[in-house]
Specification:
single chain; mainly alpha; two-stranded antiparallel ribbon; globular
């Protein structure tokens, strides 16, 4: 706001990208209003890149992109800010530090590329970015192999969520998801060797997590592999479902537990 005892001239400039609303939501008056405000917020975040915290840091983040690219696909169907964000964040690779400085955001890089192809089918962009995708994938696999096959939570910032909690199992679930996403990217470009490698690593990781982190009596995954005294937390369990580690039967048991209040929020 501007307050003055004398006339002033205020000039405002819009810096959002032009966007065409291609999706609609129709339920009731309150939900429709919420959807419209959400779409407007997404529009504000749509600059050259998809930015998070439009009133705060105004930076592109891969974890946030996973959500905004899906919302964008159904709302504006605009591929360009997704392309630019993936290209800009990935270009440095992870030889010196993880993407966005966060180990799990390096994993979201593969998931976001896979989701982008799912919603936009942009083969040309995948071909262009594929050498870098391969390089980052081999680097993250090497990090895991040097740590006995599991990604270390102490390798840079492990975010997962704004909580102080044990994050080992949750990170491995995301790693499994990223391996499957990378395998699908390789399949799209008929890279049989890399697709097979990703599936082999994912299968070995899944078996290890079920053997070392899954409590069959409780039907839940513990927070740390190989630590039967570690707690049951929500993050490793809902990520077990999303990542494909949990079977349909295990997912049903996890869903029932998540609907209750026994685990920490």
């Amino acid at each position: 706001s501007v307050e003055s005892d004398t006339p002033v001239v205020v000039t405002c400039q819009s810096v959002t990208n032009g966007a065409i609303l291609r999706g609609m939501f129709n339920a009731d008056e309150e939900l429709d209003y919420i959807w419209k405000q959400s779409a407007y917020t997404l529009h504000l975040c749509n600059r050259k890149f998809f930015l998070d915290g439009i009133k705060r840091d105004r930076l592109p983040w891969l974890g946030d992109l996973a959500i905004s690219l899906m919302a964008n696909a159904y709302t504006f169907a605009d591929p360009m800010p997704v392309r630019r964000t993936l290209a800009a964040i990935g270009r440095a690779g992870i030889k010196e530090k993880h993407l966005n400085g966060i180990i799990d955001y390096t994993l979201w890089y593969f998931i976001c590329h896979d989701k982008y192809q799912l919603y936009f089918g942009d083969r040309g962009f995948l071909v262009q970015q594929y050498p870098l995708i391969r390089e980052i994938l081999h680097d993250i696999i090497a990090i895991a192999e040097s740590n006995g096959g599991l990604l270390p939570t102490g390798s840079g910032w492990c975010f997962i969520d704004w909580l102080k909690m044990e994050k080992d199992t949750a990170l491995q679930m995301l790693y499994h998801w990223a391996l499957l996403a990378a395998a699908e990217l390789a399949r799209r470009l008929e890279d049989v060797e890399l697709s097979r490698l990703c599936h082999e690593k994912a299968a070995a990781l899944k078996a290890r997590l079920i053997d070392s982190a899954y409590d069959r009596d409780a039907g839940l995954f513990r927070a740390k592999p190989g630590a039967p005294d570690s707690p049951f937390l929500r993050h490793p369990n809902f990520l077990a479902v999303l990542s494909g580690v949990a079977s349909e039967e295990k997912s049903a048991r996890i869903a029932k537990a998540l609907a209750k209040d026994e685990m920490p929020a």
